[in-house]
Design goal:
Elements (H helix, E strand, L loop, with lengths): L1 H5 L26 H26 L4 H14 L1 H10 L3 H16 L8 H4 L9 H5 L15 H29 L5 H22 L9 H7 L2
Helix pairs in contact: 2-8, 3-8, 4-5, 9-10
Length: 221
């Protein structure tokens, strides 16, 4: 589901508590709502019968295994975060990201162990949607090259990261599905989280400030 990528930091238990959220106090512009609802219905069916059940089973695996998957997927995405930090003109964030990637890839055994957090180097996210207002570029940029090894690691990161992220979002989506209009509720949460994410990038924050947005938005309904 596209929503998984947009909410990828919202319910992550490994991040520090949110200090602030960007509020969306206006109706979300959704001119193609009828079409979007049809696509959403299909995505929801796929999620209900495939992704969510896998994510629920994943949560029963040892915590050490889950943390390793999360750390590996996060570390593999750091080069793209670094590129976006540079494009956004945030030297402090770019140094932060480069340092994390270097330390975690070496000392942290290809990112399986998040050594940087213990050293006080927090992780932040950045993508081409935050930089340019469109996410399609993220699929076209491969900072680590296109060797067979990189492609294999990329596939592992994609699959593992998707399942890990979906598992972290289960409490949120389970609560939103109890509401009368799941589509509108989730759409508004995504909008609020995205607004906080863009603001975080503009301010050049090196610590995530949007983590609590999804929960806060859910509590508003």
């Amino acid at each position: 589901m596209l929503t998984v990528s947009y909410l990828a930091g919202c319910a992550n238990p490994t991040k520090a508590p949110s200090t602030r959220c960007a509020q969306v106090n206006y109706p979300v512009h959704d001119p193609a709502e009828r079409v979007n609802r049809s696509v959403f219905a299909f995505n929801r069916a796929v999620d209900n019968y495939a992704l969510a059940p896998v994510a629920r089973s994943y949560r029963y695996l040892p915590e050490l295994f889950q943390q390793g998957v999360h750390n590996f997927a996060s570390n593999f995405s750091e080069p793209k975060v670094f590129i976006n930090d540079l494009l956004q003109g945030n030297p402090r964030r770019s140094v932060n990201t480069l340092g994390r990637f270097a330390v975690n890839t070496t000392v942290g055994v290809v990112g399986l162990i998040d050594v940087s957090d213990r050293l006080g180097i927090p992780r932040h996210s950045a993508d081409f949607g935050q930089t340019f207002g469109g996410k399609v570029l993220s699929f076209l940029v491969s900072p680590l090259g296109d060797s067979d090894t990189v492609q294999t690691l990329g596939t592992i990161s994609l699959v593992g990261g998707t399942v890990d992220t979906r598992a972290s979002l289960l409490p949120l989506t389970d609560s939103l599905q109890k509401l009368p209009d799941y589509y509108s509720a989730l759409r508004n949460v995504v909008a609020q989280n995205r607004a906080a994410f863009v603001l975080e990038g503009k301010e050049g924050a090196t610590s995530p400030a949007s983590e609590g947005c999804a929960k806060g938005a859910a509590d508003d309904f």
